[in-house]
Each structure stands twice: as structure tokens, then as C-alpha cells.
Known about the structure:
Two copies of one chain form a homodimer.
Chain A: H1 6-13, H2 17-24, H3 33-46, H4 52-59, E1 64-72, E2 77-78, H5 83-98, E3 102-108, H6 114-119, E4 125-129, H7 134-143, E5 147-150, E6 160-164, H8 166-179, E7 185-189, H9 197-212, E8 221-223, H10 228-239, E9 246-249, H11 252-264, E10 274-279, E11 292-295, H12 298-313, E12 321-324, E13 327-329
Helix pairs in contact in A: 1-2, 1-3, 5-12, 8-9, 10-11
The structure holds a DNA duplex.
Amino acid sequence: MARPTIKDIAQAANVSAMTVSNVLNGRRAKASDETVERIMSAVRTLGYRPNMSARSLVSNASRMVGVLIPFTENQNQLLLDNPFYAEVISGIESALRTNGYYMMLAGIGERTVELDTLSGWGMDGLIVVGAYREGLFEQLRALDLPTLLVDSYIEDDHFYRLGIDDEAAACRATHYLIGRGHRGVAFVTGVIRTDGVVERRYAGYRRALDEAGIAFDPSRVLSGSVTFDWGLESAARIAARDDITAAFCTADLVAAGLQAGLLKLGKRIPEDISVMGFDNLSVSRMIYPALTTIDQSILAKGRLAGNLIAAILDKKDVPRRTVTDVIIIERDSVARRR
Amino acid sequence: MARPTIKDIAQAANVSAMTVSNVLNGRRAKASDETVERIMSAVRTLGYRPNMSARSLVSNASRMVGVLIPFTENQNQLLLDNPFYAEVISGIESALRTNGYYMMLAGIGERTVELDTLSGWGMDGLIVVGAYREGLFEQLRALDLPTLLVDSYIEDDHFYRLGIDDEAAACRATHYLIGRGHRGVAFVTGVIRTDGVVERRYAGYRRALDEAGIAFDPSRVLSGSVTFDWGLESAARIAARDDITAAFCTADLVAAGLQAGLLKLGKRIPEDISVMGFDNLSVSRMIYPALTTIDQSILAKGRLAGNLIAAILDKKDVPRRTVTDVIIIERDSVARRR
DNA sequence: CGACATTGGTTTAACGTAAAACCTTGATCT
DNA sequence: AGATCAAGGTTTTACGTTAAACCAATGTCG
């Protein structure tokens, strides 16, 4: 038999469809216990499950949240191979499920055609992770949905935001290295974009140098991409200079590559060069030596994002901007200088 | 203004709603070029996007594919922190998007209440990754949807399956170690479940021993969980025995933990103990020493899964069982024995 | 010249659900 | 006794889209 509808249940329980709907949605003010029992029993025996499309069509709400993460345009693939995104998503999904919401995962690339197709599904809200492209925000605004931006620095009251204080975190990290006697600290990072997290971390790095009275040396800034390979590539450049005794990487992935590269070049970590990461991805304890890094508890951040959007959708009062804390995880990749 | 409907377009273009629908869905046999132009222009200026719920309600098809991956019941979180799942999902999403399908990501736990709620959305098809639990297959069968199982060994013509030949792969890996002079080969793995991939890999391991005339020693089998920590824990047990000169881990994550643990115990890899992994996760080249492992090209597998379900849904002819190839990636964690 | 296609549409009904308005019956109040 | 109310429903309608059936005007053929 085809999937039973609310009418089949109504017939089986000998009531009207509306009564079934009322009972099923908890509006049981108007239904005797006996009727409820008959309906529930019919639901069970027929295996009824409400048709979400119909429900969403009539109620104009879907209990679906769209989760957008960047994908690499050239490889046409979600950045889930970056464990950062994987972990955030995992946290978001967990929180959404707990709050009775569903998740539709989609990529945002350069063209972002996907956005309005997505919107056709009638999302109740949106979580956008790591967005930076100018035009995107306009498109998002045009959708006119409750939207939570994770790790974006755009100032716009249309959006809710969740993130850490990247500048302060990077500043702390740099001070941590400086405090251990390092005065030649390299900054290894991805592209420094306006309004991106990396820009703030860069600012934090420079502020720490300032505060410590160390002259900023642009040749110590290595800006490439947030990948293992970029770290690997940077190793040679860092190993070639003896004024650099420590490297602050704005991502664990980069730090992992840097360590692997330095090791291959015969450098010892942390004796010759100290390395510090950012994120505290699970990989950071797997590499050798175990990476000292900034923990931004990604999973918890994802959970929080899910909980926040749920709260927003449930019309609770949610601050426009939420900032979470960060701690330094000390492992084996940073040494005090001689 | 509220989101425009097909009727608004019809009015603006001065035709009936049906004509708009026809034009928009490519059934333009019956529409003059001029009408088409008027309609398209109205669509553009009003910013019309079809309401998927309405469409799916009437057509009984949603172009949505449900993607189910396990989640840890205790932590209530998707296994995306296992890079294997993250990479598969990334591949699936990419292929689905290319084929014009959407993806709804959900977790399957022990209770699997989620399943029928999910089914309320009217998925066109399902991809289930790494399912093993007995009752689950029955539930999946009851949904009566085209379903592709990735990495499951259940024999049932209701399902399409995609996977590698785990037994052959493990057998090759073990032979690889034996061929390099190792006769004491440990098998470090997760739980060995009936019909799971690990069971097959276990069978492959034993077959290789048999073929090489090496007596099977159950004390060389370390079965725990598919985690870094289990690898770490196993290190002590392996280091304590001098009859073991190599370890075959059924997952890179475990191998990574094992290497870290052995290193901490002062063992040299691969001089003292060789380690071999399985999966070729991106982490396997980040750890030290770089891991020799079996590459099952996870991303490509995910893509293939997406393409297969799309082909199935588009009524193309798809074999019930697809087996992909595997290669050995030689890095630095295996040595020939003296 | 009447039969028949073809082109370019339109109208009607239906998908499954829920909001809103309505109806019955019996009890309660004044 | 008539008015009022509550309990426990039912009926009607609408959500946005498409399948199916229908129609009118024009061209075409034997």
C-alpha cells in the first residue's frame, strides 16, 4: 500500500482529518482521551508519517536549516576534507537534531547559484560558515531569512554572528611565543582577506609584536593557503633564515605541513624551531611533535551555532553577536629559547 | 513583497499559470518564442524561485537524497570527526550537486527514530554509509526507496551496494608486510562485527597468514575501536612483545595512534616496528613517519556513490554491486626486516 | 470542402496538511 | 426557561505546483 495520509488515519479512527491533525500536533484541547487513543493506535498500525512537503507548504515553515560551507571551485568539492568544517558541521547537526530541526547541507562557491535553489525549499533559517565574498552577503540579505554567520566579521544587523575574538587569540599566541624568548616569529597563513578571520589574526600578531617592542618584518609573513601543502612549502623558506626561531601558523593544517617539512629538512622541533598552530583540530595531537595550539573548541562552536539558530527560530532573545572563548593547549612543539 | 508564486509570474506575463509551469520545466513544445521571452523576463524581474514543497507534493519526487552516516550515541554527534566520513560526504555532495540533486544529511544511531521522520520529507533515494546494525536494514527495506549501501556486506537484492573488496585488500596488505620479512604481524582494529568491513579485513589477514604458512596467533589481534586513542593504547601491548615486528591497522586513525604511542615508548618506526594503515586519509601523510597504507580513494568513492544513486533515480541501468579498486601507497612506515 | 492535425494555449482537479470558522450536544447559570 | 458556555468535534478553504483534459484558431490534404 502507498504511504498512508492523514485521511487514511482519519478513516481508520473514524474521525475527521482535522481531528487527527490536531491530536498529532499536540493541540489536543479538543479531543477525548478515547479518540486520542484510537488515533494513535491507527497511526501506529498504519505506520503513518506526516508529509513534510504538505506541512511546509501550508504552514510556511519547514523546520529545516540550511548549512552553507565553502567549497573549492576548481575541485568542485566541499571543504569537508578540512577537518575544521567537518567538526563544525558535526556539532551543528547534533544541536539541530536535538532541537528538532533538520539540516540541509550545501556548498557556497563563487557563483552561488545554489543559494536561491536552496531557498526554494523554504528553509526556516541559515547557518553560514566562513563566508567572506562580498556579493554573498547581499544575496543572503535578499533571502530575508534568520541567518547566523559563523566566523565572519561583516558588520550588519541583519545577521547574527558567532565567533571567537581572533585578534585577541592571535595576540595571545604571539605573546606566548615571545614570552618564551622568541623574537623572530614568522606568521604562516592563508590569504589575508578584508573582513576575514585571518585579517584579524594578522592584526593580533602585529599588535603583540608592537606591545613587545619588536619591529615588524614583512618578510616573516608567509601568506598562501590553508593547506598542509602550504605549510610544507613554507618550511624551506623558514629553515633558510636563522633569524626565525618560531612560527605561528593560523591553522593546524598549515602547522602540520610546516612541521613535516622542517623535519624533512633535518630541523628539530621545538629545539631549532618552535611551531604553534590554531584550531586544535584532532590532527594536532596526532602529528609529531604534538602541536601546541589555540583551542577554539570547534565542536562546541558548531553545537552552539545549532542551538543559537534554533533559539532564534523559536523567537527567543538572542544577542546579535556571540563571542566564545579560546585557550592555549600546550603540547610539545614550542620550546623556551636557550 | 512576499515571495512571488507562479501565479504572479503568470499575471505579469499575461498567460496562465500552466504555461509558466510548462516553460519553466522545459516542456516548451507549446509556447511561442515571444511568450517564453515574456515569461522569462517576468521570472527575472520578480525573482521567482519555485516552491519545492509544492512541487514535491504534487509530483511525489523531491530531487533530495538522504545521506545517512553513523553517529556516536553517547556523544550524540556525527562521526564527521572521523575524516573517512567527512571525505565520503564531500564526494557525495559534489556528485549529487552536479547531477542536480540535493542532500539531506542525517545520523543513524541505535534507535533510528530519525529514519521515518526523514522519510517524511519524501526523499527520492538514500545513501547509507557504513551501516551494520541488524534492525536497520529491515527499516530501510520498509521505506521502499532506492537505497545505496556504501561499505556494507549484507546480501539483499533490495539494496544497491558500493564498496571495495576488503578481504582482498587486507590480504594484499598482509602479504606486503610478510613479503618484507615480517612473520609476526599484529592486526589492530575496531570491533569485528558480522557483515562489517572489519570482518572481511580480518578474513583477509588470516588468509594471507595461511597462504604464507604462518600460524595464526590470536594474541596478535588487538580489537578495540576505530580511534586514535585505541592505537595509542595498543602501542604498549605491541612494544612489550618482541615477536611482533609489524602491525597492520585497519584504519589510518588507529595507525596514527599506534605510531604516536610507539614513538613515545622510544621505539623507532619503521626500524623497530613497521606500521601499515588502511584508507589513505589525508592525515596519513601528515603524521611521522608518513604512513604506508591502502588507498581506497575515499573522495572518489563518495563521488561514485553520488553518481550511482543519481543514475539509479534517473532509471538508468546500475549493477546491484559495484566494487572499486584499491592500491598500496608506499611511504615511510614500513621497512624490510634486516 | 469537409476531415483532420498542429500550434498555442486554458481550465480543472489533485497532492497532504492546517488555520479558521462553524456545528452539535449537553451542562450551567440567572 | 432562555441564555450562555464548554467539550468535542466537522467543514471549508487555502498553500503552490503540475498532470490531464480540454479548446480555439489556423493550416493542410485528399
